[in-house]
Amino acid sequence: MNCDNNPSQDPLELTRGLLNTTAVLRNGFLDVLGESTSSLAPTLAQRAMNSRFVATVYERLWRPTSFYAASGVTTRAEQHRAAAALRLSNATRLLDVACGPGNFTAPLAQRLPDGSLAVGFDISAPMLTRAVLDNSGPRTCYVRGDAHLLPFDDETFDAVCCFGALYLMPEPFRVAHEMVRVLRPGGRIAILTSYAGQAAAVRYALTTAARSIGLTVFDRQTFVDLFSSAGLVNIQQQAQRVLQFVTASKPG
Q1: 35 burial class (0-12, 13-18, 19+ CB within 10 angstroms)?
Q2: pTM here?
Q3: Strand pairing class (29-31; 140-144)
Q4: Rg (Cα) of the chain, in Å, rounded?
Q5: Which of helix, strand or coil describes residue 238?
Q6: Of 7-21, 46-60, 125-139, which range is least confident?
Q7: pLDDT digit string (tens) for 75-123?
Q8: Which residue in 134, 141, 115, 108 sits closest to 31, CA to CA?
Q9: Which string of DSSP letters, residue by residue, matches 184-199?
Q10: How far apart, in whole angstroms, are the C-alpha atoms of residue 150 and residue 196?
Q11: CA separation for the pair 142, 80 (Å, rounded)
Q12: What superkingdom does the record give (predicted)?
C-alpha cells in the first residue's frame, strides 16, 4: 500500500497511533514535551544542538565535515552502510533516535517498502523544524520527545538507530536500553558513536577535550557488552578513527 495514494497512511496519523502519550502538532512535527526543556543538559554540546544556527548548517556543512574528519567515511557511504545494517527492505517501521534535521531519517525512509514509516525523534525543536522543512516525505514523521523515555510501547519498531548522538546525552546507556525495548523480535539496531581505542596518550587527550564540552568517549566494549547483556545477538562492530559503528539483532 502506497502512502501517497491512501489518506489512512498519512505519516502523522500513523505515528500518532504508535505513541503511548498525547502529542500536539507543532511546526509540522508531533511534540510530546510541550514547552518542557528540563531534560536538556547545560553543556556546550547540548546548547549547540539546540541552536537555530547549528540546525540550519548541520546537514550540509557541520555534520559532513566533522564526521568525515572523525571517521574517513562520507555521509553517502554512512547512509548506505546504515540501510544495509538495518535490513530496511524487510522493515515497515523505523525509529531514528536523535535524528537532528532528518539527514538520515529521510534517505533511510526511501529504502523502506511502500506503506512503511520512518519516525525521526529528537528533543531539539530547531532541529525538528529544519527536518520538516528539508527532509519530509510520504514515509516520514518527526516527533519531539526525550529519548531517555521513548513514548512508544515495547516492540514497536523493526529497526532502531542512533547516529552521532549518544555521546551528547547525559544518560546514554538508559537511551540505549530504551532503543532495545522498543525494538521488535527479529529487528535490527544500529548506532554510530564515539570511540576511544587509540594509544593511551591520544585517548587521554581525546577524552579530556571531549569532556570539556560535554561529550562522552566510549571504549571498544561498552556497547558490545550492553547489547549482549540485553540479549541481542549477531553483534558487529566497526571502528574508524574516533567513531564506532555497532549493530545487533533482537532474537525473533
Answers
A1: exposed
A2: 0.89
A3: parallel
A4: 17
A5: strand
A6: 46-60
A7: 999 999 999 999 999 999 999 999 999 999 999 999 999 999 999 999 9
A8: 141
A9: EEEEEEEEEEE---S-
A10: 28
A11: 21
A12: Bacteria
Contact 242, 219 (CB under 8 A): no
Closest residue by Cα to residue 189 from 64, 51, 95: 95
Distances 103 to 9, 48, 57, 146, 191 between C-alpha atoms, Å: 23, 17, 12, 19, 15
pLDDT, tens digit, 9 for 90 and up, residues 143-196: 999 999 999 999 999 999 999 999 999 899 999 999 999 999 999 999 999 998
Strand, coil or helix: what is 120?
strand
Amino acid at 11: P
How many whole angstroms separate alpha carbon 159 and alpha carbon 142? 16
- CA 140 to chain CA mean position, Å: 14
- Which three cell numbers, joined as nine digits, stand for 219? 571504549
Query: At 212, is the secondary structure helix, strand, or coil?
Result: helix
Structural domains for the chain: 22-32+43-250 (3.40.50.150)
Specify the pairing of strand 29-31 against strand 24-26: antiparallel
Angle ∠(219,84,245) on CA atoms, nearest 5: 10
- The dihedral sign for the CA sequence 23, 29, 35, 36: positive
